[in-house]
Protein backbone atom coordinates (compact mmCIF):
# COMPACT_ATOMS: atom_id res chain seq x y z
CA UNK A 1 0.00 0.00 0.00
CA UNK A 2 2.83 2.40 0.83
CA UNK A 3 4.49 1.72 -2.53
CA UNK A 4 1.18 2.26 -4.36
CA UNK A 5 0.58 5.50 -2.49
CA UNK A 6 4.12 6.69 -3.30
CA UNK A 7 3.58 5.88 -6.99
CA UNK A 8 0.27 7.79 -7.04
CA UNK A 9 1.84 10.80 -5.31
CA UNK A 10 4.78 10.72 -7.70
CA UNK A 11 2.50 10.64 -10.77
CA UNK A 12 0.41 13.54 -9.39
CA UNK A 13 3.55 15.49 -8.62
CA UNK A 14 4.82 14.98 -12.18
CA UNK A 15 1.47 16.13 -13.58
CA UNK A 16 1.35 19.22 -11.38
CA UNK A 17 4.95 20.09 -12.17
CA UNK A 18 4.30 19.83 -15.91
CA UNK A 19 1.20 22.02 -15.50
CA UNK A 20 3.15 24.60 -13.54
CA UNK A 21 5.86 24.64 -16.21
CA UNK A 22 3.22 25.19 -18.90
CA UNK A 23 1.74 27.98 -16.78
CA UNK A 24 5.09 29.72 -16.35
CA UNK A 25 5.86 29.36 -20.07
CA UNK A 26 2.48 30.91 -20.89
CA UNK A 27 3.14 33.79 -18.52
CA UNK A 28 6.60 34.36 -19.98
CA UNK A 29 5.29 34.38 -23.56
CA UNK A 30 2.27 36.58 -22.72
CA UNK A 31 -0.25 33.94 -23.88
CA UNK A 32 -3.07 34.39 -21.35
CA UNK A 33 -5.26 31.60 -22.79
CA UNK A 34 -2.45 29.05 -22.46
CA UNK A 35 -1.78 30.25 -18.91
CA UNK A 36 -5.47 29.93 -17.99
CA UNK A 37 -5.75 26.40 -19.43
CA UNK A 38 -2.56 25.33 -17.64
CA UNK A 39 -3.87 26.79 -14.39
CA UNK A 40 -7.17 24.92 -14.76
CA UNK A 41 -5.29 21.66 -15.41
CA UNK A 42 -3.04 22.23 -12.39
CA UNK A 43 -6.02 23.12 -10.22
CA UNK A 44 -7.96 20.00 -11.31
CA UNK A 45 -4.88 17.80 -10.70
CA UNK A 46 -4.13 19.22 -7.28
CA UNK A 47 -7.78 19.28 -6.15
CA UNK A 48 -8.06 15.48 -6.73
CA UNK A 49 -5.46 14.84 -3.99
CA UNK A 50 -6.24 14.89 -0.27
CA UNK A 51 -3.65 17.60 0.52
CA UNK A 52 -4.97 21.05 1.52
CA UNK A 53 -3.04 24.16 0.34
CA UNK A 54 -0.88 25.83 2.93
CA UNK A 55 0.65 29.13 2.03
CA UNK A 56 2.90 31.42 4.03
CA UNK A 57 3.79 34.86 2.73
CA UNK A 58 7.41 35.66 2.01
CA UNK A 59 8.04 38.31 4.70
CA UNK A 60 6.38 40.00 7.70
CA UNK A 61 6.25 43.29 5.87
CA UNK A 62 4.15 41.67 3.13
CA UNK A 63 1.82 40.14 5.78
CA UNK A 64 0.99 43.56 7.21
CA UNK A 65 1.04 45.82 4.13
CA UNK A 66 -0.49 43.94 1.18
CA UNK A 67 -4.15 43.63 2.33
CA UNK A 68 -4.12 47.29 3.44
CA UNK A 69 -2.77 48.36 0.04
CA UNK A 70 -5.49 46.38 -1.70
CA UNK A 71 -8.23 47.97 0.41
CA UNK A 72 -6.75 51.44 -0.15
CA UNK A 73 -6.75 50.92 -3.91
CA UNK A 74 -10.32 49.59 -3.92
CA UNK A 75 -9.39 46.09 -5.11
CA UNK A 76 -11.58 44.10 -2.69
CA UNK A 77 -11.24 40.71 -4.43
CA UNK A 78 -7.43 40.86 -4.33
CA UNK A 79 -7.55 41.89 -0.67
CA UNK A 80 -9.87 38.98 0.18
CA UNK A 81 -7.68 36.48 -1.66
CA UNK A 82 -4.51 37.84 -0.02
CA UNK A 83 -6.14 37.67 3.41
CA UNK A 84 -7.29 34.10 2.74
CA UNK A 85 -3.80 33.03 1.68
CA UNK A 86 -2.27 34.83 4.68
CA UNK A 87 -4.64 33.11 7.12
CA UNK A 88 -3.51 29.63 5.99
CA UNK A 89 -0.94 28.05 8.37
CA UNK A 90 1.30 25.04 7.85
CA UNK A 91 0.18 21.79 9.47
CA UNK A 92 3.37 19.90 10.33
CA UNK A 93 5.21 20.35 7.01
CA UNK A 94 7.45 22.95 5.32
CA UNK A 95 5.63 26.12 4.26
CA UNK A 96 5.72 27.57 0.75
CA UNK A 97 6.89 31.22 0.61
CA UNK A 98 4.96 32.83 -2.28
CA UNK A 99 4.03 36.45 -3.02
CA UNK A 100 0.49 35.70 -4.23
CA UNK A 101 -0.61 39.32 -4.56
CA UNK A 102 2.36 40.19 -6.77
CA UNK A 103 1.60 37.14 -8.93
CA UNK A 104 -2.10 38.13 -9.20
CA UNK A 105 -1.12 41.68 -10.17
CA UNK A 106 1.32 40.36 -12.76
CA UNK A 107 -1.33 38.10 -14.29
CA UNK A 108 -3.79 40.98 -14.38
CA UNK A 109 -1.10 43.07 -16.06
CA UNK A 110 -0.83 40.36 -18.75
CA UNK A 111 -4.57 40.72 -19.45
CA UNK A 112 -5.92 37.86 -17.32
CA UNK A 113 -9.17 38.51 -15.42
CA UNK A 114 -8.92 38.77 -11.63
CA UNK A 115 -10.83 35.52 -10.88
CA UNK A 116 -8.70 33.57 -13.33
CA UNK A 117 -5.55 35.17 -11.90
CA UNK A 118 -6.61 34.15 -8.39
CA UNK A 119 -7.36 30.61 -9.62
CA UNK A 120 -3.95 30.44 -11.33
CA UNK A 121 -2.24 31.69 -8.14
CA UNK A 122 -4.12 29.13 -6.01
CA UNK A 123 -3.18 26.35 -8.46
CA UNK A 124 0.51 27.34 -8.34
CA UNK A 125 0.38 27.41 -4.52
CA UNK A 126 -1.25 23.97 -4.43
CA UNK A 127 1.36 22.60 -6.87
CA UNK A 128 4.19 23.90 -4.69
CA UNK A 129 2.54 22.54 -1.52
CA UNK A 130 2.08 19.13 -3.18
CA UNK A 131 5.75 19.12 -4.14
CA UNK A 132 6.71 19.99 -0.55
CA UNK A 133 4.41 17.22 0.76
CA UNK A 134 6.04 14.62 -1.47
CA UNK A 135 9.50 15.87 -0.49
CA UNK A 136 8.63 15.71 3.23
CA UNK A 137 7.28 12.15 2.79
CA UNK A 138 10.49 11.08 1.02
CA UNK A 139 12.76 12.08 3.95
CA UNK A 140 12.90 11.16 7.62
CA UNK A 141 12.61 13.67 10.44
CA UNK A 142 15.75 14.62 12.35
CA UNK A 143 14.22 13.47 15.67
CA UNK A 144 13.46 10.04 14.24
CA UNK A 145 16.97 9.82 12.79
CA UNK A 146 18.48 10.75 16.18
CA UNK A 147 16.22 8.23 17.91
CA UNK A 148 17.20 5.49 15.44
CA UNK A 149 20.87 6.43 15.86
CA UNK A 150 20.56 6.20 19.66
CA UNK A 151 18.85 2.80 19.36
CA UNK A 152 21.56 1.59 17.02
CA UNK A 153 24.28 2.90 19.36
CA UNK A 154 22.69 1.13 22.32
CA UNK A 155 22.30 -2.09 20.33
CA UNK A 156 25.88 -1.86 19.13
CA UNK A 157 27.14 -1.25 22.68
CA UNK A 158 25.12 -4.22 23.94
CA UNK A 159 26.42 -6.40 21.13
CA UNK A 160 29.98 -5.22 21.81
CA UNK A 161 29.70 -6.06 25.52
CA UNK A 162 28.21 -9.47 24.71
CA UNK A 163 31.03 -10.18 22.25
CA UNK A 164 33.61 -9.08 24.84
CA UNK A 165 32.08 -11.29 27.54
CA UNK A 166 31.91 -14.21 25.14
CA UNK A 167 35.55 -13.71 24.16
CA UNK A 168 36.64 -13.57 27.81
CA UNK A 169 34.63 -16.71 28.61
CA UNK A 170 36.05 -18.63 25.65
CA UNK A 171 39.57 -17.41 26.45
CA UNK A 172 39.30 -18.65 30.05
CA UNK A 173 37.97 -22.01 28.84
CA UNK A 174 40.80 -22.23 26.34
CA UNK A 175 43.37 -21.48 29.06
CA UNK A 176 41.97 -24.20 31.33
CA UNK A 177 41.91 -26.72 28.50
CA UNK A 178 45.47 -25.74 27.54
CA UNK A 179 46.75 -26.22 31.10
CA UNK A 180 45.00 -29.58 31.36
CA UNK A 181 46.44 -30.67 28.02
CA UNK A 182 49.94 -29.52 29.06
CA UNK A 183 49.75 -31.60 32.27
CA UNK A 184 48.59 -34.66 30.33
CA UNK A 185 51.38 -34.20 27.79
CA UNK A 186 54.04 -33.93 30.54
CA UNK A 187 52.71 -37.07 32.23
CA UNK A 188 52.65 -38.96 28.95
CA UNK A 189 56.19 -37.83 28.12
CA UNK A 190 57.52 -39.09 31.47
CA UNK A 191 55.78 -42.46 31.02
CA UNK A 192 57.11 -42.82 27.49
CA UNK A 193 60.63 -41.88 28.61
CA UNK A 194 60.67 -44.54 31.35
CA UNK A 195 59.20 -47.17 29.02
CA UNK A 196 61.77 -46.32 26.35
CA UNK A 197 64.62 -46.68 28.83
CA UNK A 198 63.42 -50.14 29.95
CA UNK A 199 62.98 -51.32 26.39
CA UNK A 200 66.42 -49.97 25.45
CA UNK A 201 68.13 -51.87 28.29
CA UNK A 202 66.31 -55.07 27.40
CA UNK A 203 67.22 -54.71 23.73
CA UNK A 204 70.87 -54.05 24.61
CA UNK A 205 71.08 -57.27 26.68
CA UNK A 206 69.45 -59.31 23.92
CA UNK A 207 71.76 -57.75 21.35
CA UNK A 208 74.90 -58.66 23.35
CA UNK A 209 73.69 -62.23 23.75
CA UNK A 210 72.89 -62.52 20.05
CA UNK A 211 76.25 -61.03 19.15
CA UNK A 212 78.18 -63.64 21.19
CA UNK A 213 76.15 -66.51 19.73
CA UNK A 214 76.63 -65.16 16.21
CA UNK A 215 80.38 -64.84 16.74
CA UNK A 216 80.65 -68.50 17.87
CA UNK A 217 78.62 -69.73 14.90
CA UNK A 218 80.61 -67.57 12.50
CA UNK A 219 83.93 -68.94 13.80
CA UNK A 220 82.65 -72.50 13.53
CA UNK A 221 81.40 -72.03 10.00
CA UNK A 222 84.52 -70.11 8.98
CA UNK A 223 86.84 -72.95 10.00
CA UNK A 224 84.88 -75.52 7.98
CA UNK A 225 84.58 -73.21 5.02
CA UNK A 226 88.29 -72.43 5.10
CA UNK A 227 89.17 -76.14 4.77
CA UNK A 228 86.68 -76.68 1.98
CA UNK A 229 87.93 -73.55 0.27
CA UNK A 230 91.54 -74.76 0.27
CA UNK A 231 90.52 -78.13 -1.21
CA UNK A 232 88.38 -76.46 -3.83
CA UNK A 233 91.18 -74.05 -4.67
CA UNK A 234 93.61 -76.92 -5.44
CA UNK A 235 91.02 -78.70 -7.59
CA UNK A 236 90.24 -75.54 -9.50
CA UNK A 237 93.96 -74.91 -10.07
CA UNK A 238 94.31 -78.33 -11.73
CA UNK A 239 91.22 -77.78 -13.87
CA UNK A 240 92.53 -74.38 -14.96
CA UNK A 241 95.84 -75.91 -16.05
CA UNK A 242 94.02 -78.51 -18.15
CA UNK A 243 91.77 -75.85 -19.68
CA UNK A 244 94.79 -73.69 -20.53
CA UNK A 245 96.42 -76.61 -22.41
CA UNK A 246 93.22 -77.34 -24.33
CA UNK A 247 92.82 -73.63 -25.11
CA UNK A 248 96.36 -73.49 -26.53
CA UNK A 249 95.70 -76.47 -28.79
CA UNK A 250 92.45 -74.96 -30.02
CA UNK A 251 94.19 -71.63 -30.70
CA UNK A 252 96.84 -73.34 -32.83
CA UNK A 253 94.20 -75.23 -34.80
CA UNK A 254 92.24 -72.05 -35.39
CA UNK A 255 95.35 -70.24 -36.64
CA UNK A 256 96.03 -73.02 -39.14
CA UNK A 257 92.46 -72.99 -40.40
CA UNK A 258 92.53 -69.20 -40.71
CA UNK A 259 95.72 -69.27 -42.79
CA UNK A 260 94.23 -71.98 -45.03
CA UNK A 261 91.02 -70.00 -45.56
CA UNK A 262 92.97 -66.83 -46.27
CA UNK A 263 95.05 -68.59 -49.00
CA UNK A 264 91.89 -70.07 -50.51
CA UNK A 265 90.28 -66.61 -50.56
CA UNK A 266 93.30 -65.13 -52.33
CA UNK A 267 93.12 -67.83 -55.01
CA UNK A 268 89.39 -67.34 -55.43
CA UNK A 269 89.83 -63.58 -55.69
CA UNK A 270 92.50 -64.04 -58.40
CA UNK A 271 90.22 -66.37 -60.39
CA UNK A 272 87.31 -63.90 -60.14
CA UNK A 273 89.48 -61.03 -61.36
CA UNK A 274 90.75 -63.13 -64.24
CA UNK A 275 87.25 -64.11 -65.34
CA UNK A 276 86.03 -60.52 -65.02
CA UNK A 277 88.86 -59.22 -67.23
CA UNK A 278 88.19 -61.93 -69.84
CA UNK A 279 84.48 -61.11 -69.80
CA UNK A 280 85.14 -57.39 -70.26
CA UNK A 281 87.54 -58.05 -73.17
CA UNK A 282 84.99 -60.31 -74.85
CA UNK A 283 82.21 -57.77 -74.42
CA UNK A 284 84.37 -54.94 -75.74
CA UNK A 285 85.40 -56.95 -78.82
CA UNK A 286 81.76 -57.86 -79.46
CA UNK A 287 80.75 -54.22 -79.16
CA UNK A 288 83.47 -53.10 -81.56
CA UNK A 289 82.39 -55.73 -84.07
CA UNK A 290 78.76 -54.58 -83.83
CA UNK A 291 79.81 -50.96 -84.35
CA UNK A 292 81.80 -51.88 -87.48
CA UNK A 293 78.87 -53.81 -88.88
CA UNK A 294 76.52 -50.90 -88.27
CA UNK A 295 78.91 -48.40 -89.84
Verbal overview:
It is a single chain. This protein is mainly alpha-helical. The protein is built from 7 helices and 2 strands. Helices cover 87% and strands 1% of the residues. Strands 1-2 form a two-stranded parallel ribbon. Helix 1 (2-29) runs antiparallel to helix 2 (32-47), helix 2 crosses helix 6 and helix 3 (60-73) packs antiparallel against helix 4 (76-87). The chain is flat and about 155 Å long.
List the topology elements.
Elements: H1 2-29, H2 32-47, E1 55-56, H3 60-73, H4 76-87, E2 96-97, H5 100-109, H6 114-138, H7 142-294
Parallel strand pairs: 1-2
Helix pairs in contact: 1-2, 1-6, 2-6, 3-4, 5-6
Subcellular location: Membrane; Mitochondrion
Coiled coil: 171-213
Keywords: Coiled coil, Membrane, Mitochondrion, Transmembrane, Transmembrane helix
Rounded radius of gyration (Å)? 65 Å
The class by helix and strand makeup works out as: mainly alpha
| Cα separation of the termini | 129 Å
Shape: flat
Major sheet description: 2 strands, parallel
The helix/strand series, from N terminus to C terminus, equals: HHEHHEHHH
Number of strands: 2
The side-by-side strand order for the widest beta sheet comes to 1-2
How much is the average pLDDT? 73
Number of helices: 7
The oligomerization state is: single chain
- Tell me the β content: under 5%
Coiled coil: 171-213
Pfam families: CCDC90-like (PF07798)
Transmembrane segments: 272-294
Subcellular location: Membrane; Mitochondrion
Question: How do you describe this structure in short?
Answer:
It contains 7 helices and 2 strands; from the N terminus they run ααβααβααα.
Amino acid sequence: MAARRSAILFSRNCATRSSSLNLLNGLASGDSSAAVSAARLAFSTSSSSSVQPQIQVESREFLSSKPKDCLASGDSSAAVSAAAFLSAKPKGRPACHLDTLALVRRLEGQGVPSKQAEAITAAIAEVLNDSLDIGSQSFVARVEMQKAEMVQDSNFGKFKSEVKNSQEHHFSLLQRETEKLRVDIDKLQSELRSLLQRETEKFRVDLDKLRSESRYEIDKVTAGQRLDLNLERGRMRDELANQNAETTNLTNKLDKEIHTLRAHLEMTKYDIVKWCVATLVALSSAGIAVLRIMM
